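User: Can you help me understand a structure? I only have the sequence.
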Amino acid sequence: MRKKSPAEPEFDISEIPAITGRTVKGGADIPQAVVNRLPVYFRRLRELINRDVLKISSEELADICGVTASQLRQDMKYFGGLGQRGYGYNVMRIYNSISETLGVGRKYSAVIIGAGDLGTALCGSRLFEQRGVWVKGVFDVSKKKIGKTVADVTVTDASELKAFCRRRDIDIAVICCPSRTAEELYEMLRGTGVRGVWNFSPSELDPAVLGVPVVNICTGDSLMMLTHEMSVRENGKNENKDQL
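Assistant: Let's start by predicting it. Here is the structure, written out as tokens:
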């Protein structure tokens, strides 16, 4: 890895402008398996940029991303290759290309629906801002929460959700409320122009209802994957003990 010289300007990740106009090499669709790896590449490349690393070999980048060098090189072909023999990859160039593909820097707007513990935590984090998404409103049905401030955003009555999304041209709805409420408010988003939904509620929301992409996040599934892995390892240890 090569770091920049002292004479080179400091890089501030928050100052990356919106990136427009670039298409994937040949206009080809990117396979879902590759798309699933892009957020990892994005995070690791951002870490390299913040450490002032200008270039990196495919072997080094693959190692920190947890993939093989061959897999990484195949993935990078969807972005025009971007590597040079004997030089490696220009970190900023592939970061910008992957950022554009992921929609980072396009300055999307979002609302958070549900001002409970999860909604409040998400609103107060830098998660959205670092990925080019700005939270414009927080909504809830609870009279106890309406009017309170969450990370400088006032919680608004959910009855105003539809009008707010239309008026502010909201791109993303982040749903963080119980199942029954989530389904009702999801239906309320019809005709608002919302272009995507990030769903943290227990309900599996159907993309066909709004005709927009919906990502259903089930944290319980992730927890069970962890406990499964732990169980497998514990069973393996017990089997080894029995063989002694």
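Now, to help you interpret it: The longest strand covers residues 133-140. Residues 5-27 have pLDDT under 50 and may be disordered. Let me know which part you'd like to focus on.
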